[in-house]
Design a protein that fits this description.
Elements (H helix, E strand, L loop, with lengths): L9 H11 L15 H5 L4 E2 L7 E7 L11 H12 L3 E4 L2 H4 L12 H16 L4 E11 L1 H12 L5 E5 L15 E6 L11 H6 L3 E6 L15 E3 L2 E3 L3 H14 L3
């Protein structure tokens, strides 16, 4: 069952989505560039009941960070995934660097991937984490980071990207099982920009939801609204279908 997400102001949502589709350079990192212990202090973690070991999900936010709109959207997603039996941690590349948004490339793709690798290394050292079941989940800018990390593949076992901003992203193939959940009508982060990655990647599955726009999984953005950069808004049927796909796909 999906918990209802908290409502946020439309003006804040618009700011989040404008910034979420900004592009940055795409240098993929091959080794963690961030100290595990330092980054771990910024990883808010939730753990299921029981002794474990548990599979894990690392969450990567959109461009405005985990506190977007008061944080309710990400709080609820994290709670829902924890209820599925996963340890969930936030890889907060922005807050770690004292930033609130990704605008202007304040966090490069190389740094983002390095942080993901460092967080994964931290998780691999925890006794309550099931090895071979470390998942990565990102939205928009974070979805782009998830795809970049999946192209490197060393630190994760599976990746999920909600409406990733594929512009200026390398068209290399992903190296781990990867799922893209994208609105077919998304004109803020156009699905067509991901086509070359999808075509090259044997371990990638993409689900396109007819009539769904950018941020289709966020109930706070209902009804959809049109902005200069594109249309954003909730699509109940697409959101529910995508959630089912996500829950089935994550490595347990």
């Amino acid at each position: 069952m999906i918990i209802k997400f908290q409502t946020v102001a439309a003006i804040v949502a618009a700011a989040w989505l404008v910034s979420g589709c900004q592009t940055t350079s795409n240098d993929a990192a091959s080794s963690p560039g961030t100290a595990k212990k330092e980054l771990s202090s910024y990883m808010e973690t939730t753990t299921p009941k029981g002794a474990g070991p548990f599979p894990a999900v690392m969450m990567v936010s959109g461009c405005s960070g985990f506190n977007f709109g008061g944080g309710g959207f990400y709080d609820d997603v994290q709670a829902n995934i924890t209820k599925l039996g996963f340890v969930v941690v936030r890889v907060d590349s922005l807050r770690f660097r004292g930033k609130s948004r990704c605008n202007g490339g304040v966090v490069s793709a190389r740094e983002q991937v390095a942080d993901i690798q460092a967080a994964s290394a931290y998780l691999q050292g925890q006794k309550n984490i099931k090895q071979g079941a470390i998942n990565l989940l990102g939205w928009s800018w974070g979805g782009k980071g998830a795809l970049a990390a999946a192209m490197v593949g060393k630190a994760i076992d599976a990746a999920v990207a909600y409406y990733p901003a594929c512009e200026n992203l390398s068209s290399n193939s992903v190296t781990v099982p990867t799922l893209i959940l994208h609105g077919a009508a998304d004109n803020a982060a156009k699905p067509a920009l991901c086509d070359s990655i999808v075509a090259k990647s044997k371990t990638l599955t993409r689900r396109l939801y007819p009539g769904a726009h950018h941020a289709f999984d966020n109930p706070a953005l209902d009804p959809p609204k049109e902005y200069q950069f594109g249309t954003i808004g909730y699509n109940k049927s697409a959101a529910e279908a995508a959630w089912i796909e996500l829950a089935k796909f994550l490595k347990h």
